[in-house]
Amino acid sequence: MTDFSVFSRGAEGRIVPPPPPAPRFEDELPDRWGYGDTRLFLNDRGNIEVTGNRYPISGHELPDFLPWMEGQLSHRIDPQDPCLSHYPPSIPGARSCPAFMADIQKVFPADGLSTDAKVRLRHGHGHTQYEIYSIKHGSLPRVPDLVAWPTEEEHVVALVEAAKRHDVCVIPFGGGTSVSQALLCPKDESRPIVSVDMRRMNRILWIDPVSRMACIQAGAVGGHIAKALQPYGLTMGHEPDSIEFSTLGGWIATHASGMKKNRYGNIEDIVLDMRVVTANGMLERTSVHPRESVGCDPRLFMFGSEGSMGIVTSAVVKLTKLPEVQKYGSLLFHDFDNGVAFMYDLSQCAVYPASVRLMDNVQFQFGAALKPRPAGGPSLKSKLEKAIVLGPLGFDKDKMVACTMVFEGTAEEVRSQEAEVYRRAKKYGGFKAGEENGRRGYMMTYCIAYIRDLAMDNYILAESFETSVPWSQVLALCSNVKQRLREEHKKHNLPGTPFLSCRVTQIYETGVCVYFYYAFHFKGVENPSQVYSEIEDAAREEVLKQGGSLSHHHGVGKLRQRFLPEVKSQVALDFVERTRETLDPSRIFGCRNQAAVPEPAHSP
Amino acid sequence: MTDFSVFSRGAEGRIVPPPPPAPRFEDELPDRWGYGDTRLFLNDRGNIEVTGNRYPISGHELPDFLPWMEGQLSHRIDPQDPCLSHYPPSIPGARSCPAFMADIQKVFPADGLSTDAKVRLRHGHGHTQYEIYSIKHGSLPRVPDLVAWPTEEEHVVALVEAAKRHDVCVIPFGGGTSVSQALLCPKDESRPIVSVDMRRMNRILWIDPVSRMACIQAGAVGGHIAKALQPYGLTMGHEPDSIEFSTLGGWIATHASGMKKNRYGNIEDIVLDMRVVTANGMLERTSVHPRESVGCDPRLFMFGSEGSMGIVTSAVVKLTKLPEVQKYGSLLFHDFDNGVAFMYDLSQCAVYPASVRLMDNVQFQFGAALKPRPAGGPSLKSKLEKAIVLGPLGFDKDKMVACTMVFEGTAEEVRSQEAEVYRRAKKYGGFKAGEENGRRGYMMTYCIAYIRDLAMDNYILAESFETSVPWSQVLALCSNVKQRLREEHKKHNLPGTPFLSCRVTQIYETGVCVYFYYAFHFKGVENPSQVYSEIEDAAREEVLKQGGSLSHHHGVGKLRQRFLPEVKSQVALDFVERTRETLDPSRIFGCRNQAAVPEPAHSP
Questions:
Q1: Model confidence over A206-233: pLDDT tens digits?
Q2: Is the dihedral of CA B246, B249, B251, B255 positive or negative?
Q3: A residues 157-196 near B, CB within 8 Å?
Q4: Do A212 and B510 touch (CB under 8 A)?
C-alpha cells in the first residue's frame, strides 16, 4: 500500500544525518598530488613502483612504463639522476593585521586560524604544473597571510564583515585542486590576504528522501558526500577526477563537470539552490523548487565565479537513487576517427551510458604500459586475445583506440543501454573488449595526477588541458592542436619528441569535451615551466582558432584570463566586472583591478 | 562508409535555409486568444459550437459542456444573455517624440513603424484575464506610443541607441502571449514608450546539421521554427502551450518550459548562446560550445529577464533528430493520490516519456464534457468501455483521474519506455486508456485559452496559474490551494460554486509543476476582474506557504512582482537591480524605479 502522506510531509519528513567525523587533511601531501600513502617512484631495478592500495596500480611494479615513455619522448630517463625537489621554497612572511585578527578571534576557535608558513603556502596554490613546479623548484611571490577554517556560516559572515572593516582580501579555498591558478595570490596585493578553508563546513544539513534533495555545506569533499549519502540509498552522482579532494563549493565556483554527467548532469544541473555570503550580505532564498521562473537569478552567477563574488556556504542538490546495477564496458576501434564517429552516433540516443570516454592511440598505449606485469607473465587467455585482435581482426597497435563505459540504472535500463551501445559500435568496427578494461580505465582516472609528480621527479613536465567543441569541428581540432604542439616543441628547441595525446571525456548532443596531454623532457631546458606555459598558451590559441572553448570545466582562473577578450564581447566583460563592483565595492573578493592585464602564469 | 570529414567542416558545413515568407499576423485576433478562424460560441440550440478545423474540437458541436459547466458553477448560463465585449476600449493618444522618430526612420522601412491606435493597444497587453477583461470591459491607462518591427539586428541597435539619446522607454514584444502582465505599460511612465515587435526577425540564420545546432532570430514563432527545421529532419522540441504564437526571444525572456521538456529540456537547456542588444552595446560571444566554464555568464541573466536587460536578437539552440516514433498513451487511476504516486515512481527512471501529465477528476470530467457527441450516439465499444471502467474495474466517476503521455524516440526507446511506464502504472492500479485519449489530451492543450474567451462571453472569469513544488509537498499544496480558493470564493460572496481544478504538467526528479484553474460566474459581481486578482493573490500566498514557487515558467512580470521580497533576500533583489542599473543606467528597458512597490494588477 502506498503511503501517500509522504507527499505532504515537507520539511517534517527531512532527515538530519549525524555530523561526519572531523576531516583529516594530514593524509594529503602538501607538495604533491593526493594521498601520502600513494607514491609512484623509480625503484632500484629501474621499474616504476606504486605504494599503497587505493588504485588499480597500487602495490605493483610497472616495468613496461619507463621504456615506453622513453620511446615516446625519444629520451633516456636515468633513474640515478632524479630531479630533486627543493620543497618547501622560501615562503613570504605573513603580513599582520591585528585589528582584523582581534575581530575574528572573537568568533573563530583557536584551532580555526593559522599563520604557519607551510599552511599558508599550501593555501596559495592549486595543481597546475606551473604551481607545483614553483613550490618544488622556484617560489611563490605571495601567499595568504592567514588561513581560517570556519565551521559555521556565522563564522564566514563575521569574517567577511571584518574583512570589509579592515580592508582585508578574502580568497575561498575548497580542496586546493584548482587547475586554473585561481588560488595564486596576485604578487602586488598589498592588503593582508586571508584564505578561507571551507573543509570544516562539511555537514549534510538535511536530506529530503522523498524529493531526493539534500542541503550540504560547501566544504564537504566529494568522496565524503558519496559516503554520507550511501546509507540512504542516494547519490549526487557528481564524480570529477578530483572527487577525493574537491568540495561542493569548489565545484560551484569552477562550474565543474563529473565523469558521469550523462546520467546525473553537470554541477549546474545538480545544484537547485545555494546560500552565498557576499560583501553585501546573504544571497539566499526562502524555499527550494525543482525548477522555477522568478526573474534573473543571481545564483547562476556563482557558477564559474571562482571566489570572486562571495563564499558559497551551502547548497541544495538533487539526488538520485543509487543505481540497481553498475556495469563497466570497453570497446576497441581501429582508429580515432571511427571511435569519434561511434560516439557521435551514440549521442543521438535518448540515454547513453553514465560515462563514455575515448582514448586516442597514444593514451591507449599509455594505459597498457601502466599495467603491472602479472606473475608468471601474461596469461594464455590474454596472449590469445591480443593475438586475435592484432591478427585476424586486423587491429593496428599504432592506430587502435579504446572506449571505456560505465552503465548505471535499473537492470532494464542497463540492459537496454548496453544493447544500444554495442549495436551502434558494430557500425564502426567496434570490438567488445570486456568489463575489466572498462573498470580499469575508469579507475585509472584517479591516478593521472600522481603520474604528473612522478614525471616531474624525472625531468618530465606534463600537464593536461581541456576544451569543448561542436561535433562538426572535433577531428580538425584534435589533429590541429596536436600539430601545433609538435611545431611549438620544435620552435622551442626542446629535447627529444613531445608526448602528445588526447581523449574525448564527455559527449553532448552538440559536441564533446576533449582533453589534451602534452609532456616533454626538460633536463637542460632553461625555465622549463615557463616554456611549458608558453606552449600551452599557443595550444590554447589553436584551440580557440579551431572552434574550441576556453575551458569545458576547469575554469578561467588566472591561467586563461588573458584569453577572455578573445571569446567575450567588451559588454559581456564589463557586465561581470560591474556586477562585481556593485556587489563588492571594496573588492574584498579578489584583485582590486581584475580588468587589468592579468599576470602571466610564467612570471612568478 | 562513414564520412569523417563532417567532423572537420565546422562553419563550412552549415546550411543557410531560405528566408521564411513574411509572417501573417492578421490571422490572429486582437481581442481574443488565437486564430480568427477558431471561434467557440453558444449557438441557437444552446450548444457550444467550434468553427475552423485546427483542433480536435474544431467543426463540432459540444452539447455536454454547458450543462456540465453549469453544474460545476451551480449557476445557469443564459445563451440569450451574453456578456457583450466593448472592445476596443478608448485608447490613450500616442505621445510623440519627433527627434527619436526622425532618427529611427533613417533605418526602419516605412512599414516598420506604426502609431495606429489598435496596433498600439495590442502591444500594450498580454493574455491574463485581467488584461483581456480590461480591453473588453474596461481600458488600459497607458499603451505604447509607437510600435516598431525591426527586420535586422542593426535596426534594434539603432533603435536602442536612439532611445538612449532621446530618453525613450523600450519594451520588447514577442508573441504577445505573456501571462505575467509583463507587457502592461506602467501608467505613470512619462517617457514615450516604443514596443519592439520582433516577429519580422524570424529567420533561421544557419543550421549545423552535424553538431545539431541552429542560429535562429529571436522573433521566430515556435510553430514556424518547427516547420522550418522539419525538412532537415531536426527539431528544437520546445513546445509550450503557446507554441503557435510565442517566439524564441519570448521563451528566453520568460524562462519558458515546453510540454516535452523531459526529452528536449527546458529553454535554458536548449539555448547554447544568444546575442543581446543592451543599452551598453552588444552582449555576444565569438563561438558556441556544447558546454563551457568561462567565468560568470551574463547570458544566463537573460533567462527570466522579461525584457528588462536588453533585446535578444538571436540565439543558437540545440536540435534533436526528429523522433523515429511518436506515440501517445493514456492511463486512468482511481484517484489523484494514486496518479501522483505513479508519476513519482516514474520520475525515478533514467528516461521518462517526452510528456507525462496528470489531470485531476474535475479536469478529467472537463475533458470528457468537451467531447463532440458522435453521430448516432456513442459507439457500442465506447459504451462498453465506460461500463467496464465504472463497473467491474470499480472506477468512481467523481474520483477517477487521467494521465496522458507522449513517447518519442527510436522504436527501441519508445518500446522500452512504454514497458517501463505500464509496468509502474500497474502498481498504482493504473488502467491503460488508449492512444487516442492521449493524443486528444495533448492536442486539447491548445484549446484551453480559447475556452477562456468563450467563458468571458458568458459571464465566467477563468484563469490558470502555475507553480513548482518538491514531491514531499505536492499533495498538501494541491489540496490546500483548492481549499483556500473555496474559502476566498465564499469570503468574496461570489455567486454559485467555484470551478476548481488542477493538473500536474511536468515532472522532475525532485518535484513537479502544478497548474491550477479557477473560474466563477461574475454576473452581478462588482469589479469581477479585480476580485479575481485578489483571489489569485490569496491563492499565490497559499502556494508560497505550501512550499510552491512563485512561478514554474510563466515568470514574474508585474502580476507577481509584489511577492518577490517574500522569496528572495534583499541582497538577491539588490543584485539584480544594481546589475540593471549598471547595464542600463538610464533604464530605457523598463521602469525607472523598478524597486518601488509594484502597481497592483487590479487597479487599472
A1: 999 999 999 999 999 999 999 999 999 9
A2: negative
A3: none
A4: yes
